[in-house]
Amino acid sequence: MTIGSDPGHGHSPAAWISVIVTLIGLSGVTLFFFLGSWSAVWVFTGVTVVGIALGPVLAAMGYGVRGPKYQPKGH
Fold first, then answer.
1. How far apart are CA 3 and CA 32, in angstroms?
2. Closest CA to 63 of 52, 50, 72
3. CA-CA distances (angstroms) from residue 12 to 28, 34, 41, 65, 71?
4. For residue 10, how far is the Cα from the chain centroid?
């Protein structure tokens, strides 16, 4: 990578979907932890794990920054 080149991290559908699903999972874990609903805590823990795994999976499917299905937007 050369100095001044944009690595493009965080500006792809894979990154956005991964972050959004992970945030939903972590929000649910926090909410239901304080409400004491342990089954819901474990369900949202699973959602969090799926969200974390979605980034690399979607990037491998071509939705990452350098993937063929990624359409960069001009700034």
1. 45
2. 72
3. 25, 33, 29, 5, 8
4. 9
| SS3 state of residue 28 | helix
Question: Which residue type occupies 45?
Answer: T
Contact indicator for 1, 7 with CB cutoff of 8 Å: yes
- pTM beyond 0.70, yes or no: yes
Eight-class DSSP state of 71: -
CA–CA–CA angle 75, 52, 10 (5° rounding): 10
Predicted confidence (pLDDT) per residue in 30-39, tens digit: 999 999 999 9
Structure confidence by residue, pLDDT tens digits, 3-44: 555 555 567 888 899 999 999 999 999 999 999 999 999 999
